[in-house]
From TrEMBL:
It comes from Rheinheimera aquimaris. CDD domains: CBS_pair_CorC_HlyC_assoc (cd04590). InterPro entries: CBS_dom, CBS_dom_sf, CorC_N, FAD-bd_PCMH-like_sf, FAD-bd_PCMH_sub2, Ion_transp-like_CBS, Transptr-assoc_dom. It holds the Pfam family CorC_HlyC. Plays a role in the transport of magnesium and cobalt ions. The keyword Nucleotidyltransferase does not apply. This is Magnesium and cobalt efflux protein CorC. The keyword Magnesium applies. Belongs to the UPF0053 family. Gene3D superfamilies: 3.30.465.10, CBS-domain. Keywords: CBS domain, Cobalt, Magnesium, Repeat, Transport. Residues 71-130, 137-194 form the CBS domain. Transmembrane segments: none annotated.
Length: 290
């Protein structure tokens, strides 16, 4: 007698799917390498897609990382001096486009606190408000050692609701900083903000000679905008041209000059360039004929 129960086949299929997952874990992984093999096998069996695989592998990698492995190095930290005026700060804010900055006293080993750009706006936009000092706007700086586990740091970020930590070496000197975005990008890949996903913002003018340019900007669009002659047979994007010129994967802050333009890496990860700052050279001043 045939079984006409419509739930029977679904139950069988569900059991089969669960059995497939269980069979993968029957090997009883002994270390992270075994877990990575299991994740790869899960993708091969179409139990997870490639994005899920990458995310799971990112979680495993983070569990072995320390703050020193993902921090922005001291040399690439964008900071503000405690005695800076709003006029002093604006070029730094425009160049880096961060939401928060460490504020230092004389040098980067003396961190006074963290400035949130939103806290500065009411003073920057109202020239009549003069009775204030930068020190009054600062949030406390969180200090962590280079050896801090990244997974533990992420937990602290979430529980204590802060977004940036200053990394110090064994002697107490500042060696870099870590943000919550730096950790999440290790898991889910590059996180693009609301300005990165709009096609019309591939090239954004920041100042008279300064532009923010997505590394994925098509080369023909870049050539047309900057009147350059980069060969489209060499690369499809301006990021490809810059990467080839460097000859290695550049870190944030590295720069190179090509065809009269200075290209500074403003955002990158271990796999690709993300965002470039492009600076046009000053035009020579023509002398007037007498």
């Amino acid at each position: 007698m045939s079984d006409d129960n419509p739930h029977s086949s679904r139950g069988s299929a569900g059991k089969s799917w669960l059995d497939r997952i269980a069979s993968i874990f029957n090997a009883e992984p002994q270390d992270i390498s075994d877990l990575q093999d299991i994740i790869s096998e899960a993708q091969a069996r179409s139990l997870i897609d490639s994005d899920t695989k990458s995310m799971l592998q990112g979680v495993l990698e983070v569990s072995n990382m320390r703050a020193r492995d993902i921090m922005v190095p001291r040399s690439q930290m964008a900071t503000i001096d405690i005695d800076d005026t709003v006029a002093d700060m604006l070029p730094i804010l425009m160049e880096n486009n961060h939401s928060r900055y460490p504020v230092v006293n004389e040098d980067k080993d003396h961190i006074e606190g963290i400035l949130l750009v939103k806290d500065l706006l009411q003073f920057a936009l109202d020239p009549n408000v003069t009775d204030w000092h930068l020190r009054d706007l600062l949030r406390p700086a969180v200090i962590i050692p280079e050896s801090k586990r990244v997974d533990a740091l992420l937990k602290e970020f979430r529980q204590k609701r802060y977004h940036m930590a200053i990394v110090v070496d064994e002697y107490g000197g500042v060696s870099g900083l870590v943000t919550i975005e730096d950790i999440l990008e290790q898991i889910v890949g590059e996180i693009e903000d609301e300005h990165d996903d709009e096609e019309e913002n591939d090239i954004k003018k920041m100042a008279s000679r300064v532009f923010q340019v997505s590394a994925l900007t098509p080369l023909d669009e870049f050539n047309e905008t900057f009147n350059t002659t980069f060969d489209e047979e060499d690369a499809d994007t301006i990021g490809g041209i810059v990467l080839h010129a460097f000859g290695h994967m550049p870190a944030r802050g590295e720069s190179i000059e090509l065809q009269g333009l200075t290209f500074k890496v403003s955002k990158a990860n271990s796999r690709r360039l993300v965002q470039l700052q492009v600076i046009r050279a000053k035009e020579p001043v023509e002398s007037e004929e007498s």
